[in-house]
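Appendix B. Chain record.
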Amino acid sequence: MQILVVEDDYQIAERVAKDLGRNGYEVIGVATAEAAHDALASHRIEAVVLDRLLDDGDAITMLASWRRAGLKAPVLVVSSLGGVADRIAGLAAGADDYLSKPFHTEELEARLKALLRARDRHAQREADILICGSIRVDRRHRTATRNGTPLMLQPREYRLLETLALSPASRDPLDAPREGMEPELRSPDENYRDAHQPTARQTRSGGQRRSDRNRSGDRISSPGRCLSPRAVRCCAP
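Structure tokens predicted for this chain:
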């Protein structure tokens, strides 16, 4: 795991690199903002230890530009500027933590580990969410929403939606209308009428009421807003 240490104090940089290296980290040490830019561009950096006051500029301004450019790695700012306003400015610029100098390297490493754990948890949560157009599938809780409205799906319907969302074809939003088809969300009243109102043929023949089931025999309707059979077919790539 590569850790970028941006520190212009040679003694501090050497001590941090030595202690982190002893614990299995690969440390890339630089002393200027320009070298930090180059290191981020040429290495797969997992976390950054950033001294605020560098010879070639305030690292807080640099950090803000990194975040705007899309930097996701956790950043721990270390600085002799330890006032409340200084810490707030660092966190507002995009720092994930702020450690005042002087510090013990054991504390710095503990804070780094905490930041990396938080990053991994966040990445796992993101992996559990599939977003296709206005449809959002939560794989962890096995739920789905459309435009923020919960979809009341039967287990088989949910598995179908999840499978489609995971397929390469999901790059075409699942709720995008296909030719000749209109996706729709149906209200509980519409589902109830469909499930209980006899068709004209059944009325003439005295047959049983129409069951709102698909060809596989699975019930489509359920309490709350849900996908109609036609909407489920619209999910097919």
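Further analysis of this model is presented in Appendix C.
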